Amino acid sequence: MLCCCLPFGVVSLVFAIQANTKAGAGLYDEALRNANLAKIWLWVAVIGGLLGNGFIIAANVLAALANA
To answer: Is the pTM of this model over 0.90?
Structure first.
């Protein structure tokens, strides 16, 4: 969660916790829905993190080339 896009990772974590809580309470349909939402937000966080880190790396490379 910390290495990817942090805000979206937090949303994924909240949905995962809700899924565990609802599964423990026997609300399996709601738990499945929250687990699916957690998975969606996990992928959003991973893709956002990769794009964000790629942008930062590209910006640093371009800045180094401009200074060379």
So the answer is: no
